[in-house]
Protein 1
Amino acid sequence: ETGVTQTPRHLVMGMTNKKSLKCEQHLGHNAMYWYKQSAKKPLELMFVYSLEERVENNSVPSRFSPECPNSSHLFLHLHTLQPEDSALYLCASSQDSSQGEEGSPLHFGNGTRLTVT
Amino acid sequence: GNSVTQMEGPVTLSEEAFLTINCTYTATGYPSLFWYVQYPGEGLQLLLKATKADDKGSNKGFEATYRKETTSFHLEKGSVQVSDSAVYFCALPGGSGGSNYKLTFGKGTLLTVNP
């Protein structure tokens, strides 16, 4: 039990499909993140939500649409994806501090392995 | 912004061998430093951390010392086991763009330990 639960664990979708990835954290954290992990590439931060507001969007294509309805849940809505979007999508949470102080370390889920055909 | 450079792998060792994975950093001030580990089929999990210079983080037989003189945070273990096979990531807060809570990760080092 990691405290951060991602569903589904595996997803295969065609380029014309619409699907959503779900993340839930049970740690009482106030910040949530989506990362993309591709083979032989560094971890890419996609989106950050702090106190349910999106605070960072790292030039991610619009075919990825995040949603954070509350501090415990985070979604990533997918539509018209490309084969190069196939990757492991990791959700993480942390306790974000204000005033420029460091927050807590990130806690990750086990990821959703996405394959776009 | 802060950045980290990590030794690229893969690293293959025999059981009970000594492990070192190098990590150097560039940072404003003295942020906390972290090592994360990713076992096959799982997400990343925090392995150890050090919050100030000369601190030593340790967990599961792994150690890393925060050395400001050499701006390094090398990961070491005296005797690796097959179960240590995983990808190891060095990380620190405050990547490019100045977000203090955001971690910047190294590229990861794949460790394989053979029996």
Protein 2
Amino acid sequence: DGGITQSPKYLFRKEGQNVTLSCEQNLNHDAMYWYRQDPGQGLRLIYYSQIVNDFQKGDIAEGYSVSREKKESFPLTVTSAQKNPTAFYLCASSIRGTLGTEAFFGQGTRLTVV
Amino acid sequence: AQSVAQPEDQVNVAEGNPLTVKCTYSVSGNPYLFWYVQYPNRGLQFLLKYITGDNLVKGSYGFEAEFNKSQTSFHLKKPSALVSDSALYFCAVSPPNTGGFKTIFGAGTRLFVKA
């Protein structure tokens, strides 16, 4: 089945640790995105990638980093510089941008700082 | 600034009654508009989109949405609500001046359908 797989589903981070969230897609989409979801705030764009080996900052990129070495994969690292990382993280992809085409979302990773 | 507003945090309807979830937007140029649905602890699922053409757009699970350019609105509707429609609904806009890579999402409206 084609789709987007995020792992792990739940992740716990200690203060000062970096953690990496995985996102893999087999839809052959060029564009991939990372969003953060907090209650009552909708989705906020962290990073996006239009194509392999390219990525751009979104609205809340501070404290996060990404890579796009393969078309299928777009991992997100939450660094210790992110002061409030507890949130639900969603990865998405689209054929190119979303002008006329919808995005496909993974099932999400819930990150909690302990 | 470009934005999307969903004025209601929650909408309550009885099963079998029609439902409306409201969305208004403020973007430059002709908007590309979307509705997504989210069930608890899951990702978003696409419902429908407006690109151009007929102002009434039909989507998945019996949902439809009406685009109104003069009121800059894109309200989601369904003639007869089901309990299983209870979920969180997001309106989204892709501004054309961002190439479609910076979609703006509303804060979401929680729909509760009572049996």
Protein 3
Amino acid sequence: NFMLTQPHSVSDSPGKTVTISCTATSGSIVSHFIQWYQHRPGGTPIIVIFEDTKRASGVPDRFSASIDGSSNSAFLTISGLKTEDEADYYCQSYDRDSWVFGGGTKLTVL
Amino acid sequence: EVQLVESGGTLVQPGGSLSLSCAASGFNFDDYSMHWVRQVPGKGLEWVSGVSWNSATVAYAESVRGRFTISRNNGGNFLYLQMTSLRVEDTAFYFCAKDVGHLRFPDHWGQGTLVTVSP
């Protein structure tokens, strides 16, 4: 089954740039559209990136994403970190009528 | 404005049954696939089940297949999840989510309803 794996946590200081990876197994990352969601405690997930690299409406351009076929991974990059970016981030895709989520990465802005 | 409001979560004993509902408004409900996603407190998101706009396609995570049934009422704008043979590990917040189209990805989520399975 197609699966997505993320690092458990990442952290950095305000103003810095952080990148979260999402690695696919049992399938090719380039054959599956990847979405990214921000989930703050107590809130609902908010879509940040859809179809690999497209920013959702209202998402600042500090958020960007990319796909790397050679590492079979997708990446979410957040530049100019702000304390409000602190949240859990999930990559997501769909495979054979099913949704697949990565395990989530906790971003801490120190 | 898209609104998804879940209800039905409660405490239930292992082996019991429970039905969740999701009331949808603010969009043409019968144009979109709908899904249930759950989150064990402190853990990640887990897709549970999805249903196409016309109920022709339904899909389940392996962890719930054979125990949970998803359905929808397009006339009343409701999504349902019938859960049977509940296990302690089914304890989670259950979110209703709207798909952007046909079994693709979520663009709106409800606030969730808590299901607790405990003796």
Protein 4
Amino acid sequence: DTAVSQTPKYLVTQMGNDKSIKCEQNLGHDTMYWYKQDSKKFLKIMFSYNNKELIINETVPNRFSPKSPDKAHLNLHINSLELGDSAVYFCASSLSSGGRFNEQFFGPGTRLTVL
Amino acid sequence: QKEVEQDPGPLSVPEGAIVSLNCTYSNSAFQYFMWYRQYSRKGPELLMYTYSSGNKEDGRFTAQVDKSSKYISLFIRDSQPSDSATYLCAIRGGAFTGKLIFGQGTTLQVKP
């Protein structure tokens, strides 16, 4: 029973292509996140949705577009892929977004390689 | 200046050693401080969190926050080869959004 799952696990594609990554959580959480981890292991928030509403939208190229069809799913679509988009993308979820501390549970990551 | 600074290492110690991992941060308003552990090719998992200043202990792990110097630490006693991983400090930067700001992560290797 995987709590936060992502598909695909690996994605190898050519520059200029469009690709999507999907995330699902079965924890009953209200908030989901997308993070990018670069080759130096630096992990940075990209987006967050709470109850399908976008609440974090960091300085990310508009080629990246998140979409949350429901509370349990958060997808990431990337247009016109560039070499610099190569990274590991992590999805995470938490019970809620604010208030007291809410642990974020991370998925296994999607390793994107742009050639 | 980054909001959270962490020495990326790598750090290599013999089994049984005491390990000290550290981060500094810039914004004195931060209240929640976390340590995540990330094994190779896996997602990060929460190890410990601390609210405000003070110490928190969980088995062989102790997290320490000194808000006066904006310094957070993780100590691992009697380190084991299974502790070999990347350790990421994180700070909750958004009280209403849950935004986490991570340090770069320190890669630790514990040699048997």
